[in-house]
Design brief:
This protein has three domains: about 1-115, Rossmann fold; about 145-205, Dna Ligase, domain 1; about 210-330, 2-Layer Sandwich (D-amino Acid Aminotransferase, Chain A, domain 1), CATH 3.30.470. A hairpin with a 6-residue loop joins β2 and β3. It is of the alpha+beta class. It is built from twelve helices and 14 strands. Helix content is about 35%, strand content about 20%.
Length: about 325
């Protein structure tokens, strides 16, 4: 199959996207596919994949988000039409690749693509909106508040009283733990909010759920074994995620029924949102054994340290087998 792997761009997740694309392109090429790559930061350059490094290594540069402009989107569309791949394989984390715009562009151009359709991607990317839908589905999720405007005098104090300390401050539409802060003291909250603003996003303040961090991968309608994440020091932030400072456990020892419940909730959420391809849903499990859904990611990381390949390995699939299952599950093209 003639596959175009799209990656990079200039979102806050560029370096992770480059690593994901390198891994996926390498395995797709090894499986006999004709693979080309396109860095969304250079939308007029489609290059044959030759196994060389794509962009930078993960975790080595600070994310510097920038939105794609109209001319860049037009250039990307022209490149997609000119190359006419049989499949656009989406490794473009965050921003344009994960909020539904790439899916919408491919749909407009009549090109099959590997990730969720535009509506599902847009819903999942917006943490505030997706958490509202979780509540409608009676899925457990932590209390939260989205700050669309600059907080008025005393507003942050009120949110601390409502959500408690510690609390989590995160960008509403970024992933890969970019811009996330665990706020333990009242005086640290303004800086955490300002960090998210500097990433051109709205801060989402969320009640911190103590306990264990779990994730559930979903591949074309089926869930994989849960993975538990344990940061060796502190908590699971951007640096721990991509610098090897984290231990992963799969399979996971859990109280009876917990894994089955999380898997069922994950399937239900993916079906309700209308997802396809590969997704990853993140959970917390409190000391009493209550699961709490954090978010659903429609373009999860697929690097050497990423969670979906670890879950696939526990299910007996190596990276290439995981990608074969992904492609087969996309249906007719």
């Amino acid at each position: 199959m003639r596959i175009l792997v799209i990656y990079g761009g200039e979102s806050g997740e560029r370096d992770v996207s480059c690593a994901t694309a390198l891994a996926c392109a390498g395995h797709l090429a090894a499986d006999g596919h004709e693979v080309h790559t396109l860095d969304a930061a250079q939308p007029d350059r489609v290059l044959p994949f030759d196994g060389s490094e794509l962009g930078t290594r993960p975790g080595t540069i600070a994310p510097t988000p920038r939105e794609m402009h109209g001319e860049e989107v037009l250039a990307l569309g022209r490149s997609l039409l000119a190359h006419a791949p049989e499949l656009v394989y989406n490794c473009l984390h965050g921003g344009f690749g994960e909020d539904g715009r790439l899916a919408a562009l491919c749909s407009l151009l009549g090109l099959p693509q590997s990730s969720s359709p535009a509506n599902a991607a847009g819903i999942s990317m917006d943490k505030d909106f997706s958490k509202r839908l979780m509540r409608r589905l009676d899925l457990p999720t932590a209390d939260w508040c989205l700050l669309r405007l600059e907080p008025e005098a005393g507003e942050l104090d009120g949110l601390i009283e409502r959500l408690g300390l510690p609390l989590v401050v995160k960008p509403n539409t970024l992933g890969s733990s970019v811009g996330i802060t665990l706020v333990g003291k009242e005086d640290d909250l303004p800086a955490a909010v300002a960090l998210v603003r500097s990433l051109n996003d709205h801060p989402l303040l969320e009640r911190y759920v103590p306990g264990r961090e779990l994730t559930c991968a979903w591949v074309c309608g089926e869930t994989l074994p849960l993975v538990e994440i344990r940061a060796r020091e502190g908590w699971y932030d951007y640096q721990h995620k991509y610098s090897g400072g984290t231990d992963y456990h799969c399979p996971v020892e859990l109280p009876p029924g917990v894994a089955e419940s999380i898997a069922a909730h994950t399937r239900r959420l993916n079906e309700f949102f209308g997802c396809r391809g590969i997704t990853r849903t993140d959970w917390r499990l409190d000391p009493e054994g209550n699961a709490c859904c954090l978010e659903l990611n429609t373009v999860p990381g697929m690097t050497a340290t990423s969670l979906v390949p670890k879950a696939a390995a526990a299910a007996g699939m190596d990276f290439s087998a995981l990608l074969r299952r992904h492609l087969a599950g996309l249906g007719p093209r």
